[in-house]
Design a protein that fits this description.
The structure holds two protein chains of two kinds. Chain A is α/β, with parallel strands linked by helices. In chain A, 41% of the residues lie in helices and 13% in strands. A five-stranded mixed beta sheet of chain B has the order 2-1-5-3-4, with helices on both faces. Chain B has a four-stranded parallel beta sheet with strand order 11-10-13-14, with helices on both faces. A four-stranded mixed beta sheet of chain B has the order 12-17-16-15, sandwiched between helices. In chain B, helix 9 packs across helix 11 and helix 9 packs across helix 15. In chain B, 52% of the residues are buried. Chain B is α/β, with parallel strands linked by helices. The chains are: A alpha/beta, B alpha/beta.
């Protein structure tokens, strides 16, 4: 079915007045079908240039590329429409620039910068698109000859895009473009033809589970809140996305904010809430900007407000920005933050579904969870539950980063193996290095070694190897990464972000961090107790980890020991090398590196001695120099400045 | 319902927490952040128990009971977790125990002994925070703080003052005033409820023992006066039962320590009643500012000055009983005894920390000298008795000295919430109708409920009364008053929930039972008293005849009444 046919089908399921109102609101004019088609830019009369202007694209230089394109168009007297779109997910290929010429499919180029854009532009406009930087063409009525389809590109071929469907395709600031591709019809269908019970049932049967990391069945949570007897109920969208290494929520809000809004509208209807908050971290200014515009547009077009489509259902959304606390991604701390209090969690029960914001029943869901809802309503629960594994249905967006060739956001069906993600989609380890481990789930998650990468991704299977789905951050590591350093990094993060309320997390993680620091401290800077702490290290780490896991108040504390426990499980030898041999096998722990000068290569130029911050290098001019080990702080300056590669690191 | 604990079946009730059921059945569950009557905080995690079917350990303070629950309170897993938590706390706690005044009452130390912590498992790190000794009432030592959060919750939720809160994050978390200001310039009203709940020595009263000892050595005429609540509470510090009246023992102890005279602040209370009831009668007659609020609680007075200065004119202008008595001592008594007032030192024994602040107020100089020179809490008095090596329990009881040792039952019940009101009603009725109240026991204002409303018929007038304890209730009342509520003519306000028997300077009580027993004892003393109304206090009548003249007269105005001013604080 074409998109147009699908639109017609969806409209036909609505009551007459609703369908008429919908069409007249969004496709105002003589020929609504033609208007919808032009909104989808299926048959353009003027060239369109799309620029990937999500935060990733902008960081890669998309802003400069846009300026250059604008000046080139002027120079060459070409009239074209420039559209800024969100992130399609191929972040390592940014800036991405797409072209749709009249009577030609949309075509996509990657790594387009002011330096090379002119050549690309010329080649496309002369109908001979250059092969260099060409990523592929989108499907359509007017294929380019000899150009690969984007869906066959290894980065995209295994993806199944439900959440990221529109990201990088549409102008996120246009509600009409969203609607032209079927947007908001699920919501109108829900409030005009379904009861709240039916909506909850549909979502429950689909098997959708919370995508923020908890994995709690979404339909079940909605039903709990729906059943709670109260006049006031609330809906909250958790867009705090605190995990370092996770950026899918940001991309979805930047690139397709209306999808999230629609999901929230359906959820609010299902549970009986009339007011919702989006709690979004302040460090996402572009996402906030786009979301604000989307909410205004939704209000102006009758999607938010009172008695929406005569259903008797009132609903509105307010944005509340975070203030830089990772713990405020925890649901009860988030609620306290919205209430104006310090963001500290509280004991549960009572759960927010029963007693949440301002003491009222509240459903909190993650951005990605909401973004799945419109398609579930549109296509039915069977479609969603036909994807994935037995207990984990649907797709998941992963933020793939680290030592792989291709990084970015990938949406894959549950049950895909890690190996497929890292080697097929990600293209394997770059620069010919060797895969060592992949960290999944951020500071709450764990590392998975090579021996386990055939694992099918699923909530339960990951737990069985000591990891956790979490929000879906995947950081790939090669042999240059030290696993003890990874554990230390995450423990340091947790210590900085712990709210301080409960003793196991506040005091316990500090002590775990102390031990990890003692293990990675250099021999020279070691204090006397450090040696004892080092030897007791692993045992103490495991004992403390157990108590912290079992007694912490919230998920932050309960999962804080995971990176340590999982690296201990799979890379115990690295810990032992640090503790007993005082060596870092990966060469990453800077304090444990030993620097020496190869006498045969040294020309005695003294450049290194001049750069040494502790005057640790001795030697007469034109004679081989020598590093005094006791003074050396392993900063690496000498190696950096030596022109003769005479500095050896071990 | 029935639940299974350590293999035994015990009773539990729908809607209660597991901890409440366990405590009732006598199980020994340690707690650090638990506050009776308030919603669970879940901060300390030490009350954890093992519950079948739960992967992690569960805090019993927050877990609701369900039929058939299977609980283990002291399994190896639980004991290990509790011990680890104590070890973690101890390793970031100063090693000060030898010099810490909280040593015998410290909950952390008690837990360490109970769980057998004898090794320094972690190396000591101390918090980077300085002591705050700015307040005359309360000393803060953040290094000893275990961040249980009880002080914050009591200040914020019970008292609705909220001058302290958590700041910073993670290991750097600390409790502080807004903008890290010192306590004395913050909105703290010195009530000391935080001191009463602090499990360690992080919050203590400002110790005045050295000053009092020096005064006793100085050769000056040192006079002690003790508040009504003290005699029914002091016994607890010596292992005597709750509510035992140790008035006689206390007087003997004070005499033995070298005080030249021991008076009863309840006499001052009778004096306050004469002045205040007369003041109230005047306001009713001349349509003065109504409702009139009592002013004997210095924390309440500071609260009005800080947060609701618009109601300053509603406060009675009477000083508190001990201030009045101090002023009278340094004028009338000094004259009678032929003493130079500058050689008299007045020491008040109070259940209160706010009194330490009150005596420093510049207005409290009725006789051109400070009415009261020093103030000791009930706890400090116990310490002093021990320093002098006095065998308290085996003393021969003695009577307080005249003339100010004489008091009515009405003066004694000042220590309980509702006591001031009842005493005032007894005298007001007489002053306005010339007749005694038919039943001197005025039940509607008794009890530890935070808000009590009543009506009394005096002559042909119906006077509406309100009794509030706990500043949070006062806040609600004032907010309603601002919006135009009009349901009281005369209001008694005590900052401490339940009244002075629950004051910030009282012996540390494990639960509400102590407060109830202390209050009960006061009313019992009153019921057995020969003279039960302030206006029949013979010594008081003499004082007026020989010296003051009449209530609200010029001498009274000068010595016994005071003024108030609005206060600005650094955090508002």
């Amino acid at each position: 079915m074409t998109i147009q046919e699908e639109l017609k089908k969806q409209l036909s399921t609505l009551p007459d007045f609703a369908a008429k109102k919908f069409v007249s609101t969004f496709f105002q004019g003589e020929d609504p079908e033609k208007i919808a088609s032009s909104l989808r830019r299926e048959n353009v009369s003027k060239p369109v240039i799309y620029i990937g202007a999500g935060t990733c694209g902008l960081a890669a230089g998309a802003g400069r590329t846009r300026k250059k394109i604008e000046s080139l168009l002027k120079e060459k007297n070409i009239e074209a429409e420039i559209v800024e779109v969100g992130c399609i997910g191929f972040c390592s290929g940014e800036p991405l620039v797409d072209f749709t010429l009249p009577q030609k499919n949309r075509i996509c180029y990657s790594k387009v910068l002011p330096e090379n854009v002119e050549k690309i532009l010329d080649s496309v406009f002369s109908l001979k698109p250059q092969k260099e930087n060409l990523l592929g063409q989108f499907e359509g009525e007017f294929p380019w000859e000899g150009v690969e389809y984007l869906k066959e590109n290894p980065f995209f071929s295994k993806q199944k895009r439900i959440v990221l469907k529109n990201c990088g395709i549409i102008d996120p600031l246009s509600i009409q473009e969203y609607v032209a591709r079927g947007g908001y019809l699920s919501f109108i269908k829900a409030i005009t033809t379904m009861t709240p019970d039916e909506v909850c049932d549909c979502v429950e049967k689909s098997g959708l589970r919370g995508r923020g990391g908890g994995g709690f069945p979404t339909g079940k949570k909605w039903k709990l809140a729906k059943a709670a007897d109260a006049h006031e109920k609330y809906l909250i969208c958790n867009a705090d996305e605190g995990d370092p290494g996770a950026f899918m929520d940001r991309a979805v809000i930047e690139g397709d904010p209306h999808r999230v809004i629609e999901g929230m509208c359906i959820a609010a209807y299902a549970i009986g809430a009339n007011k919702a908050y989006v709690y979004i971290r302040a460090e996402y200014p572009l996402a906030v900007k786009n979301l604000k515009k989307a909410i205004l547009d939704a209000r102006a077009n009758g999607i938010l407000g009172e008695n929406i489509y005569d259903s008797g259902f009132d609903f509105d959304i307010e944005i509340k920005m975070g203030a830089g606390a990772f713990v405020c991604g925890e649901e009860t701390a988030l609620i306290h933050s919205i209430e104006g209090k310090r963001g500290m969690p509280r004991p549960r029960p009572p759960y927010p579904a029963v007693k949440g914001l301002f003491g009222k029943p509240t459903v909190i869901n993650n951005v990605e969870t909401f973004a799945n809802v419109p398609e579930i309503i549109r296509l039915g629960h069977e479609y969603f539950s036909s994807i994935g594994t037995k207990n984990s249905k649907g797709t998941k967006v992963f933020a793939l980063s680290g030592a792989v060739k291709r990084t970015g956001l990938v949406e894959i069906p549950m049950g895909t193996t890690l190996k497929e993600i890292i080697f097929d989609i990600g293209g394997g380890i770059e620069k010919g290095r060797k895969f060592k481990a992949v960290q999944i789930g951020g500071p709450s998650g764990g590392c998975i070694p090579e021996s386990k990468i055939d694992i099918e991704i699923d909530y339960e299977s990951l737990k069985s190897v000591g990891a956790m789905m979490g929000s879906g951050g995947l950081v790939v590591m090669d042999e240059r990464t030290c696993m003890v350093d990874v554990a230390k990094y995450f423990m340091n993060f947790i210590q900085n972000e712990s709210c301080g309320k409960c003793i196991p997390c506040r005091e316990g993680t500090k002590r775990m961090l102390q031990i990890l620091e003692a293990i990675t401290r250099s021999r020279k800077r070691e204090k006397t107790e450090d040696a004892l702490r080092r030897f007791e290290g692993i045992i103490e780490l495991e004992d403390l980890a157990k108590v912290i896991k079992e007694t912490s108040l919230c998920g932050l504390g309960q999962t804080a020991p995971n990176p340590v426990l999982s690296t201990l499980r799979w890379f115990r030898d690295e810990y032992e090398a640090h503790i007993f041999d005082r060596k870092c096998p990966a060469g990453a722990c800077s304090e444990m590196l030993e620097y020496s000068i190869i006498a045969e290569k040294c020309k005695g130029c003294s450049l290194c001695a001049k750069q040494c911050p502790t005057q640790a290098i001795m030697g007469a001019p034109k004679s081989p120099h020598y590093i005094v080990a006791e003074k050396c702080i392993s900063c690496g300056n000498c190696k950096t400045v030596c022109k003769f590669s005479a500095v050896k690191v071990s | 319902m029935k639940i299974n604990v350590n293999g035994k079946e015990i009773d539990a009730f729908e809607g209660e927490t597991l901890l409440s059921a366990l405590k009732r059945e006598g199980f020994d569950i340690p707690t650090l952040c638990y506050l009776e009557g308030m919603s669970p905080s879940g901060a300390c995690r030490i009350c954890v128990v093992e519950i079948e079917g739960q992967a992690n350990l569960v805090t019993s303070c927050s877990f609701p009971v369900t039929p058939g629950l299977k609980v283990k309170t002291h399994s190896p897993r639980v004991i290990n977790a509790r011990k680890t938590i104590i070890e973690l706390l101890m390793s970031s706690h100063p090693d000060d125990c030898l010099y810490c005044d909280k040593q015998d009452k410290c909950e952390l130390l008690a837990l360490a002994r109970k769980y057998g912590v004898t090794k320094r498992r972690f190396s000591t790190i101390s918090r980077n925070a300085n002591m705050d000794i700015s307040s005359p009432s309360i000393i803060r030592d953040p290094k000893k703080c275990i961040l249980c959060g009880k002080c914050v919750r009591v200040c914020e939720e019970t008292q609705k003052v909220g001058c302290i809160d958590f700041s910073m994050r993670g290991f750097k978390s600390k409790i502080s005033c807004a903008f890290d200001s010192s306590l004395n310039v913050s909105s703290c009203v010195n009530c000391g409820q935080c001191v009463a709940v602090c499990p360690t020595g992080a919050l203590m009263e400002n110790n005045s023992l050295e000053s009092v000892k020096r005064a006793l050595e100085s050769g000056k005429y040192v006079v002690a006066q003790h508040a009504p609540a003290v005699s029914v509470s002091l016994g607890e510090e010596f292992g005597l039962p709750l509510g035992k009246d140790v008035d006689g023992l206390m007087v003997s102890a004070l005499k033995e320590m070298g005080f030249s005279a021991v008076f009863d602040t309840a006499f001052g209370a009778d004096l306050t009643i004469m002045e205040e009831a007369s003041e109230f009668a005047e306001r009713i007659k001349n349509k003065g500012k109504i409702p009139m609020f009592t002013s004997c609680c210095p924390s309440w007075v500071k609260y009005v000055e800080t947060f609701y200065p618009d109601f300053i004119e509603n406060l009675s202008t009477c000083k508190s009983p001990h201030q009045m008595l101090g002023a009278v001592i340094k004028s009338y008594y000094a004259q009678k005894k032929g003493l130079d007032p500058k050689d008299i030192v007045v020491v008040s024994i109070m259940p209160c920390t706010a009194k330490k602040f009150e005596i420093t107020r510049p207005e409290m100089r009725g006789a051109n000298f400070e009415d009261v020179d020093f103030c000791l809490t009930t706890r400090e008095l116990a310490r002093l008795i021990n320093i002098f090596g006095i065998d308290f329990k085996n003393l021969k009881p003695s009577q307080a000295d005249l003339p100010f040792g004489e008091r009515s039952g009405a003066g004694k019940i000042f220590g309980a919430s509702g006591g001031v009101m009842e005493a005032a009603v007894r005298t007001a009725h007489y002053l306005l109708t010339g007749k005694e109240l038919a039943d001197l026991k005025f039940e509607p204002v008794r009890g530890i409920k935070g808000v009590k409303k009543a009506e009394v018929k005096i002559g042909d007038k119906k006077i509406k009364l309100a009794v509030l304890s706990g500043l949070g209730n006062a806040k609600d009342f004032l907010d309603a008053l601002q919006k135009g509520a009009d349901d009281a003519d005369f209001v008694e306000v005590m900052a401490c929930p339940g009244g002075c028997v629950n004051g910030g300077g009282q012996p540390f009580a494990k639960n509400k039972k102590a407060v109830l027993e202390r209050a009960k004892a006061l009313y019992e003393i009153d019921s057995k008293e020969k003279i039960r109304v302030s206006h029949e206090n013979k010594a008081l009548k003499t004082l007026y005849k020989d010296f003051l003249g009449k209530p609200l007269g010029e001498k009274s105005h000068h010595l016994l009444h005071t003024s108030y001013k609005a206060r600005a604080t650094k955090d508002r």
